[in-house]
Amino acid sequence: MFSLFLVFMVICVVVNVISGITGMYSDHSDGDDHFNQFNQFQRNVQQQQFDEMNRHFTEESLKSVTPFEMGGYDMTQGNSWNNNDFGGMF
């Protein structure tokens, strides 16, 4: 679970860096206020989404490694790897 979280974080950082680099070249300096305001709004929305995803995945990753008694997932119930019947395979 942690490795998936780590891969997701790396992908998000790479996308953020690439969008920042391409954003530097796509800015127009023609003084069009509406265009600049829209770009700023778009960057703000993207940053908010990125921050929200980071917060969500951080909470989920912490919950997955926290004992149930301290607010983590109850791994003795439901669809857990340890409770699946693989026909004696494991």
Characterization of the model:
The structure is a single chain. With 90 residues, the chain is mainly alpha-helical. It has one domain (1-82). Helices cover 64% and strands 0% of the residues. It has helices at 2-26, 33-65. Helix 1 runs antiparallel to helix 2. The longest helix is centred in the middle third of the chain and has 33 residues, at 33-65. The two termini are 20 Å apart. 0% of the residues are buried.
Instruction: List segments where confidence is low: pLDDT < 50 over at least 5 consecutive residues.
Output: none
Q: Note the gap between the termini.
A: 20 Å
* Overall average residue pLDDT: 75
Give the percentage of residues in beta strands.
under 5%
Number of individual domains: 1
Biggest sheet: strands, sense, closure?
A: none
Question: Tally the helices: what do you get?
Answer: 2
The beta-strand count equals: 0
- The helix content is 55-70%
SSE ordering: HH
Radius of gyration: 21 Å
Shape: elongated
Structural class: mainly alpha
